[in-house]
Amino acid sequence: MTHVDRRPDIAAVAAAAGVSVTTVSHVLSGRRPVSDATRAKVEAVIERLGYRPNPSARSLRTDRSESVALIVPDITNPFYPAVAAGLQDVLLGQGYLLSVNDAALPSRALREVVRHVLARRVDGIVLASYGATDDDIAEIARSGTKLVRLGGRFRAEFGDVVRADDVGGMHDVVSHLIERGYARIAFVNGERDAHPSRIRLEGYERAMREAGREIDPELIVSTTFTRAGGVEGATTLLERSTSRPDAIVCGNDLIAVGVLDVTRRLGLSVPGDLAITGYDDIEAASLVTPALTTVHNPAREIGRTCARMLLDRLAGDYDDVAREVVLAHRLIVRESS
Amino acid sequence: MTHVDRRPDIAAVAAAAGVSVTTVSHVLSGRRPVSDATRAKVEAVIERLGYRPNPSARSLRTDRSESVALIVPDITNPFYPAVAAGLQDVLLGQGYLLSVNDAALPSRALREVVRHVLARRVDGIVLASYGATDDDIAEIARSGTKLVRLGGRFRAEFGDVVRADDVGGMHDVVSHLIERGYARIAFVNGERDAHPSRIRLEGYERAMREAGREIDPELIVSTTFTRAGGVEGATTLLERSTSRPDAIVCGNDLIAVGVLDVTRRLGLSVPGDLAITGYDDIEAASLVTPALTTVHNPAREIGRTCARMLLDRLAGDYDDVAREVVLAHRLIVRESS
DNA sequence: GGTCGGGTGCAAATCGTTTTGCATGCTATT
DNA sequence: AATAGCATGCAAAACGATTTGCACCCGACC
Question: Is B212 left (phi over 0), alpha (psi -120 to 50) or beta?
Fold first, then answer.
């Protein structure tokens, strides 16, 4: 084993450059003017010694960790990795470390995950978990940690919100189906009380009402935002109903994939016997056969936006006002409708 | 604005409990015996005050950050989120924070990402990037940061390696095709110099040789581990060859999906005109039509294993010996072959 | 009865930064 | 020629934990 030299600290740099530690710190932070000659000298030494400030010491002093946590309800849902990539796009350049935390039940309760990241004193949290309760959010607020939520109801005291226009998106999908002449349009939604479910249902209802269609509660079922949920929902709809729907609108793409599984098993032709639509436009939507009509959810751009808003807040901007940013959706018509 | 009380520090706890800070620290760490009475008193105060040790102060003193970084080549490849979930399964319970870092080109050079996490002084790194050079790995080793690599060539001085048995997996796929009677079996691989490419090619070659088949260099093309790579590879193979292959083995599922895109465009029937196989068994493999024959890569279990090995190292176990752990693969035969 | 040793607790040094208050030398102004 | 003001640099006090060396008290042992 070769002996590894002790890591240089700021004092070592100061000594080697013949200045005080204060001066080195000022060169690093730029908080006080430093003459060009001194700066050059110090920077040369830093380079030569390979000095990197100790982040623990720094955050102990400044009370900032330069790290941000993303909390997602299911990291294996491809929507969230895309969000994470968007966050990273912005955060990496600013020197922030991004921690990604999966709060997927049953193994990991959201509250436990929230406590975990709060205990680590992250500077900010991007909360993408639709399972979050007011209590969870209040706990974050109480700790003083900056918060940006991805989706969810907008309330000033609960921080900023970034979301796609789900009401509009779902409205467009349903209108599209109505236009194509589908008569009995069913809806397989995600978790009943989750915010995205409610908001997507709202879009469905609005489009139906606008078209003068009656809303049949028999045609609306709530399951979970997963492939298994889609199987369950489709089974309920297609096996119990006396008169079958001729189109099924799904709360997200994963559900739609599950619905497709069922139609395949039942030997139904899509979109002949039944039209199916998804939501989010994850890659799988274009892979299945028939390819899914869906609504593109700009995941990466949402991630970028969350990051920028968090940085604004960390910089002290918008200190006394919460913001809600809504990103445009885009209807993608493919073969399934 | 309501006034938020200052966070209690260890001194506040000591004062409220009528003991010294040393004692409180010992209650927390258990490094010295503390009487039951004292312990109970201190724990009650901690609870009442909601005291949580400041992680920066702690790691400044202990030189441990209790955090681990995962570096992946493409976070939108669903294999990696599954690995991340596995890591989290193990790390969360131990109080470690997991940071996930996407080193996807062209925006983020791997070296830059490595520097970034090293600057943050993480305790350990799980490096899943097949683009890593010896230099990258040496830089990590030099910093003293514990390293576990996901895949890659095993070398004692470069830390532990966890990998699936890719040679065996690819061997099984190819043998399966040979058994089914396919005559001209082509191979669309990922990046030519990437380790997983080499190793998977090895499995292909071994199976061919075992069956007494000749290896035709014309039938082997290197692209990238992406859907676009599959399109490119299939186009090359199917449009240029005088005599077409009747089976295409792909370096991963994403490539296979791209190959499928091409067969669809050319109107080829799968597996009638052409058999196609993938590798990894990501969800998409079962979604496409026809569903892909592939090899199951136990991503989540790989993640868990990486985490455990890293924890071993951080605990000082296996200090003077590197380990390579190989996880079993499983051939999944579906419709495409 | 003196000594030994285990259990328990405390004071103080330490980790590596940032930041404040003050001192110095120089230039420019009057 | 005196002084105001600026640019520059330094010493020292935080930040909040962990850990070491030492002191004390007590019962047990010879």
Answer: left
